[in-house]
Every structure is written in C-alpha cells, then in structure tokens.
Amino acid sequence: MFEEIRKNNIYKIFLDGRWIESENNIKIYSPIDNQFLGSIPAMVEKNVLDAIDSCEKSLISWKSICLFDRCEILLSSANKLFEYREEIANILAKEISKDYKSSLSEVIRSVDLIKETVAEAKRINGEVLFGDRMSSQTKNKLSIVSRESIGIILAISPFNYPINLSVSKIAPALIMGNTVLFKPATQGSISALHLIRALELGGLPKGIINTITGRGSVIGSIISKSKKIGMVNFTGSTSIGESLSKSFGMIPMTMELGGKDAAIVLSDADLEDAADNIVQGAFSYSGQRCTAIKRVLVMKDIAEKLKKIIREKVSKLTVGNPFDNCMITPLINNESADFVEKLINDAVEKGAVKYTTGERNKNLIYPTVLENVSLDMDVAFEEPFGPVLPIIEVESIQDAIDINNKSIYGLQSSIFGKNIDEIFNIAEKLECGTVNINGKSERGPDNFPFLGIKSSGIGVQGIRYSLESSSRIKSIVLNKK
Ligand code: NAP
Ligand code: G3P
User: Fold this and answer.
1) Is 87 known to be catalytic?
2) Catalytic residue among 95, 200, 256, 468
3) CATH H-level, domain 261-445: superfamily
4) CA–centroid distance, residue 194 to ligand 1 (Å)
5) Residue 214: its pLDDT value, please?
6) CA atoms within 13 A of residue 202's CA, in its CB half-sphere
7) Cα 128 to Cα 84: distance, rounded to the nearest angstrom
8) CATH T-level topology, domain 3-257+457-477
9) What is the average pLDDT value for the chain, to the nearest integer?
10) N or C: where does the chain have the smaller number of CB atoms within 10 Å of the terminal CB?
11) Residue 73: closest CA among 202, 167, 201, 193
C-alpha cells in the first residue's frame, strides 16, 4: 500500500493527486540509533508553486461539493488511517523516538478526531438571526449566517505529533471546503507522508491536499511570497510562529506555540496524586510536549514531602528504547539534548540540587529533577522540551501566581489542592489558556478548547473551534417588504 509513495527508499511529493519523484532529497535518520529511514523530498521553488497552483485549481470544485459528501470522504479516509494504524505507528515510533504505545494511540486519537470533526461540522452548519432583537433595529431584516471556506490553508506541523497535529489541521480545513498545503516537520515527514497516503486511499479528490517537504527555513520564504495563501495554521516554536506572522501579513492565523506550564501545589493537596500527575505530565515523551509540566511551584511547608515523592516516582521511570515502551527515550536530536544539558548545568552552577537517574548518553537525557531552583536560573523561565523538572518553593499563594504569570508564555497551568473556592480564586488570576484543577496539563480531550495566550499562541483549537477558525462567516441579509 505504501510502495507508491517511495522508490528505493526515496519518498515522493504528493502533487495534484499523484506521487512524483523529487530531484533533491534530505536523508532522515532515527533519533533512536541513527538508523537510516529514507530520504524525503527537499522541494524547490517550482515544486512549491506547482503545489500552490494545484490547491488553487481544486478549490472551486471541492468547496462546491456539499458538506455531507465532504464528510463522507473524510470518514472513509479515517477508516483507512485506522486500517494502517500499526504500520504508521511503527514508522512514527522510529522517526521521532516516541514509545510505540503512545505512537499507536496518536494514530487512533487522530482517527477519532476526524470522526468527531465530521459530526461537529454537521452541527455548526449555520443560523438565522432576526433584526428585531435590538430596539433601534428593524424587524424587517434577517441574516442568514453560513460558514464558507477561506481558501488555501497552509498547515505546518511540528515534529512531536506528526500524525495528530497534522490531522487536527487537515481535517477541519478540508471539511469546511478549503484545500490544504501541508508542510510537516522535516523529522516527522516520513510519518506524515504515510498519513497522506492513508487519507488518499480513502478517496480524497486530487489536488485538495498537496505536500510540501524540505527545510522550513527554505520553504517558508518561498510560500510567503505567494499571495494565494488564505490562512496559516501553525504548531511549533514561538520564534518561528512570530516570523511567520510577520512574513504572511494580514491573513487569519491559528498558532499553537511554546509553553512553560506550571503545576501549583497548595498546602492541602493530596501529594501522592499531585506527584503522579506532575511526573506523568513532565516526563511523558521525555518532556517533548508543549503542554508538559515545565515547573512546579510548591508551598514551602509541604515542599520536602512533595520532593521526596517526586524523586521516588522519577526513579522508577523507564528509560531506553521506544519499542520497549520506555517513557524516557532519546530526544529528537543532539542539539535538543545539548540545550537541555545547558539548562541543567546553568541551574546547578547557580545552586540547584540535581536528582537524576543516569548520565547523558548522546541524545538520551535521563529524567532530571532540579530542586532549590531560583528565579535567576534559565530553567525557571525557558522551555527545555526535554526530561527536566524544576521545582521552585514559594512562600505564599500570591508568589505562586506572580511566578506563574511572570512568563512570556501562557499555555496551561495546574493547581493541586482541596479548597475549591481558593483554587477558583487562583485559577481566575492565572494568565493562561487553560487551568487544570487536580490534573496535569494536557491538550485533550480534543473537543475541549485548546489555546495559548501571550507568546503561546493565537486563536483557539479543539474540534468545534478549529472548524470555526478554518472557515469564515458569510451573512446574507434579507430585507422583507
Ligand atoms: P519548530 O522548529 O518551530 O518547527 C515547527 C514547524 O515549522 C516544522 O514543520 C518546521 O519545519 C517548520 N518551520 C521551521 N521554520 C520555518 C519557516 N521559516 N517557515 C515555515 N515553516 C517553518 O518546532 P518543533 O521543533 O517542530 O517543535 C517544538 C516547538 O513547538 C516547541 O517550542 C513546542 O512548545 C512547540 N509546540 C507547541 C505546541 C502547542 O500546541 N502549543 C505543540 C507542539 C509543539 P522543519 O522541521 O523543516 O524545520
Ligand atoms: O505538544 C503538543 C501539544 O499539542 C500537546 O498535546 O495531547 O500531549 O497534551 P498533548
């Protein structure tokens, strides 16, 4: 089934419904053991312009198909994705070093996401508004409000969820009648091309999705010169998000960017439960999640107890190969490991106490807890995207709120405690998109709104919200005589 998309282990470009060979390629190696996995197309300007043309040509026919039929096609694609889930999960685990079990659930979660996006699209079809709601308005006017496609949506996904964070952009865009120019992360492109093949096998009409692979730094400037892109839907780092928003100018954008999610642990918290959530939240997929818990703000009177429980739990984390379902696996590349190590060293030099279960081996960093962290350490505010958890002790709830808010990011926060009134008062003061009460920070369930404020993002994701942001409202006003 996947033979079509590669020749001699060189992957092809999906252009206008056909898989075509590329003249230039990039070699992809597994972060696990440096095994060669295949080459992906390094597309040049002509390829990119052809892909944009294909999206443009296909737009008219795709958006004129009725919603029900677009939904049926997406459901059929979801079924194909489910059929090939194990093959795709296997590639994903190798390509981004994610444990096999999580890789498989990522694919299955994406199938569910498509199905629920289809169901929700049928619910948000439109509405009729009457003009006599306001005293100054006439009752002779009514507005038929419908949703229409935006045009070509540029979907750019990051390395850490090559299937799910691609599907969460592609599915709402296509269902709402847009066409998609799809740029996966370079490390993640092999998984993403398999995804597109599975969707294609479900019966996608030609041209409604075209793949753009190659280094983002090269591709980005080519695409931004085109004035044909209707919207950008990006997940990735804040720095790239900022540069995209400058280069694409005044078009709608949805961006999921970096985070520095805090877990605030109050004096009356169930420490066992809080520590469970914190360790899972901080270390799953080796901390390479935007929603990972990236700092603990704990009340001083319970800090010693909490640190002890966290250390015990961290000592039991499994470290090694994704195919042994280890939680801590090699990071995506050596540069990421260098960055994490630098943050750890800076903290230790400034007085932090380090607890780790092993020493770095190439791009594998053992889970590390940093205690006695102070605000002058880089790790207090930087996003490591690795398996390191800084613990900051606070004197008061107000200190916790201030430190939480003293961040350029505002993705999520967690509060652990028992006094629900107190928790709500804190939650209202935290500057972030979502506050989790007695639970770790996380994006799902996928029908919940997911958003970051400040440097963590623009716009809202989540099934209904993504459908809304992937479409624009059209109001047709009827003047009754
Ligand atoms: P990244 O380096 O920003 O890359 C993200 C995507 O942007 C990749 O597809 C990348 O392609 C592409 N890209 C890079 N430069 C570009 C340019 N000039 N023009 C167009 N596209 C460009 O991020 P990452 O390393 O994949 O992911 C880690 C970061 O993403 C972290 O900061 C994390 O917090 C954030 N993230 C946030 C969320 C969220 O939901 N808030 C989710 C996941 C990740 P190449 O791979 O070819 O460079
Ligand atoms: O980093 C990806 C981000 O969207 C997190 O998703 O499901 O791991 O919370 P999740």
Assistant:
1) no
2) 256
3) Aldehyde Dehydrogenase; Chain A, domain 2 (3.40.309.10)
4) 20
5) 98
6) 24
7) 42
8) Aldehyde Dehydrogenase; Chain A, domain 1 (3.40.605)
9) 97
10) C
11) 202
